[in-house]
Amino acid sequence: MTVTDPLELLDIAGLLSDEERQIQETVARFVADRVRPHVADWFEAGTFPRELALELGKLGVLGMHLDGYGCAGTSAVAYGLACLELEAGDSGLRSFVSVQGSLAMFSIWKYGSEQQKLEWLPRMAAGEAIGCFGLTEPDFGSDPANMRTRAVRDGDDWILTGTKMWITNGSIADIATVWAQTEDGVRGFLVPKGTPGFTTRTIKQKLSLRASITGELILDEVRLPDSARLPGARSLGAPLSCLNEARFGIIFGATGAGRDCLRTALDYANTRVQFDRPIAAFQLTQEKLANMAVDLNTAALLAVHLGRLKDAGTLKPHQVSVGKLNNVRKALAIARECRTILGASGVTLEYSPLRHANNLESVLTYEGTSEIHTLVIGQALTGHPAYR
């Protein structure tokens, strides 16, 4: 037997329901038709076509795991499988969907007022409005508790001052969820594009996530009414809970990137002839392929297991850290190893592994660095927080 998909090795599809497989296949077709023919050009140009937002909205993946307000209300596993297929196309595509649905939309869905939900969620689910999530700052990434962005009461209003950095969708967003320190702790605010004092800047010269827009948010005494505050967000736990939502998608997404790399390397190894044989027939190449397939399939098993826990309502933050740390690390190693099978051809955008490897360098760092997730797991094992 010869498998046509690396994940057939352990029959991962056999763990899924018919509905989950149908959702995965639908997203895979979209990626094949709309993304793969163009993504190398987007990556080279450093752009993300804004019209994709409307297409992704029509596909139904924006906030698909949320209930109501135009959202599909799918299972966590179904959402994860969509992320797998999106990141098989490119991490930038999955990042857009993840930030839109699991950060910007989730923050409104979980902590917003009914008025805020009705105003923004249907448009965001349709891709008519783009959101971003402003937590990270130039000097505070892993330590958001010490953020410098401040929100001060001024009568019935709030005055926000500060800077947010490395914000996906930042300079194209219609609405930003911005987190700030107040006298009563961290609070979240919705800042619409065009608000006086609110400006954005696109970050250029990136070597990673080039098919994704990354920006800086600058808040210079931005005045907002109290109705812009997310009333349900009353501590740093609110933005951290949003991050856990997005990290869950990464667990599946990284697996998709790894699968795309391994598929590419398998196809190449079976057609590239050296010494009168395809290089897939040599032991050293088969060892690489076998080791990568084992790592990829165990990552997929972990993703599905954590998805089932999330659907059951029992998934814990340290378990998300296990999934994010393991699956991104494994996917990055697979991408690098696949590039070696491709030889010199692997350094061009004709083939995906090095593009995925570049992207995964960012995925390894954002939404919790590998070091931070290691310490989260260490605390779960020992009971001792080692962050300081």
Can you walk through the features of this model?
With 388 residues, the protein is an alpha+beta fold. The protein folds into three domains: 6-125, Butyryl-Coa Dehydrogenase, subunit A, domain 1; 131-228, Butyryl-CoA Dehydrogenase, subunit A, domain 2 (Beta Barrel); 237-382, Up-down Bundle (Butyryl-CoA Dehydrogenase, subunit A, domain 3), CATH 1.20.140.10. It has helices at residues 18-35, 39-45, 51-59, 76-89, 91-111, 114-125, 237-271, 283-312, 317-342, 353-365, 370-382, and strands spanning 67-68, 71-72, 131-134, 150-154, 157-168, 175-182, 185-192, 198-202, 214-225, 273-274, 277-278. It has a four-stranded antiparallel sheet, with helices on one face. The chain has a three-stranded mixed sheet with strand order 3-6-7, with helices on one face. Strand 6 and strand 7 (185-192) form a beta hairpin.
In terms of topology, how is this protein built?
Layout: H1 18-35, H2 39-45, H3 51-59, E1 67-68, E2 71-72, H4 76-89, H5 91-111, H6 114-125, E3 131-134, E4 150-154, E5 157-168, E6 175-182, E7 185-192, E8 198-202, E9 214-225, H7 237-271, E10 273-274, E11 277-278, H8 283-312, H9 317-342, H10 353-365, H11 370-382
Parallel strand pairs: 3-6
Antiparallel strand pairs: 1-2, 4-5, 5-9, 6-7, 8-9, 10-11
Helix pairs in contact: 1-4, 4-5, 4-7, 5-6, 5-7, 7-8, 7-9, 7-10, 8-9, 9-10, 9-11
